Amino acid sequence: MGKVNYKKMKGSQNLRQRLLLSTLSGTPILVEDIRADDKFPGLRPHEISLLRLFDRVTDDCVVEINDTGTKFKYKPGVVMGGRRVAHDCGVSRAIGYFLEPLIVLGLFGKKPLEIRLKGITNDSKDPCVDTFRSTTLPILKRFGVPSEGLDLKIESRGVPPLGGGEVVLSVPIVQALSAVTWIDEGMVKRIRGWTFSAKVSSQFEIQMIHAARGIFNNLLPDVHIFTDHKAGLQAGNSPGYGISLVAETNAGCCISADTTISYARGDDVGDMEDEKKELKPPQDVGEDMASALLEEIELGGVVDSSHQGLVFLLCALCPPDISKVRVGKLMPYGVETLRQIKDFLGVEFNIKMDTTTKTVILKCMGCGLKNLSRKSS
Fold first, then answer.
1. Which residues does residue 58 pair with via DSSP β-bridges, in sequence order?
2. Residue 250, phi then psi, degrees to nearest 5
3. CB neighbours (10 Å) of residue 27?
């Protein structure tokens, strides 16, 4: 066995993209200086959980972490997929944190993936599972992923600090993705939404819906927001409530905004700005999220700002053909994803400002990733 050449990287930022691109490109990585100067150095529980998740859905992957957790080696294996896989995501980050790299990874597996994920389904830090189902999965279909076998079932809710939620994700396999020209945003034709409440009164949902509709009904008639009140085991271990809103355009684009109100995690290190010391009234939540959705629509682009990274990644993984997408303002997460794509796949994007609409058009030639582990029929 020859010596493994590791690509050296520093810091804990963008760990999800690094692990995903490392696995898809077959590039072993060595990450050093992970919060080395922090009061609590090393990998956080959700980052270790993410490494375990990658280990679970791949075969022959090797992870070595040093004693302090400030340095690790990752040698990617073959993506296996498979049914009846289960993973506990813990409670330091929501399931949404794990879903984004997992869906892309699952597409290039040997078998279709069906995995049960346990933990927090809704929080204010990561995209919630409702948004994932209504907005993220349709984005994959744009790139040639079949609808059959692509699904996310929400079996129970879980909010911070104690979680207790459960979802089942199904991802089909593809031979390769399809390049896209996706620059027509269209006009918003309808708004859909989902509210949920767990271990609190279902009246909270009615108040959120009433407040959100108070803003939307002045702008368009087709507004429908569904409720999902959970009690007992399906409500998880902590009280909370939230709303996920999606604007659908006549060009088939989905723009989303969501939040969850719950008690703060007691054991979080840093990241204190997202924590809520007291629960915000549901009327304010409904109004704020309606306004947040309108701000996302105003920015323009075919996806909202939280989905920029995923779209850039899918474009880069397409066959060697030109993909072209329009986004609103480029967000830091999107820019960082572009850097990681260039670093691992050698794919560079041509970025051009559209001065008339104040949006950004990005073009790239895909790296031509093929699913070599897929069983030939």
1. 79
2. -75, -5
3. 18
Helix, strand counts (H, E) of the chain: 9, 18
Q: Which pLDDT does position 225 carry in this prediction?
A: 98
pLDDT(178) > 60? yes
Q: Which residue has the tokens 């922090």?
A: 38
Mapping DSSP to helix (H, G, I), strand (E, B) and coil, where does residue 87 land? strand
pLDDT at 310: 98
Sign of CA pseudo-dihedral 201, 245, 18, 75 = positive
Give the span between the Cα atoms of 371 and 104, in whole angstroms: 12
pLDDT over 70 at 196, yes or no: yes
Query: Which tens digit of pLDDT belongs to each residue from 45-87?
Result: 999 999 999 999 999 999 999 999 999 999 999 999 999 999 9
pLDDT, the chain, mean:
94
Contact 326, 351 (CB under 8 A): no
Please confirm whether the linkage preceding 161 is cis (ω < 30° from 0). yes
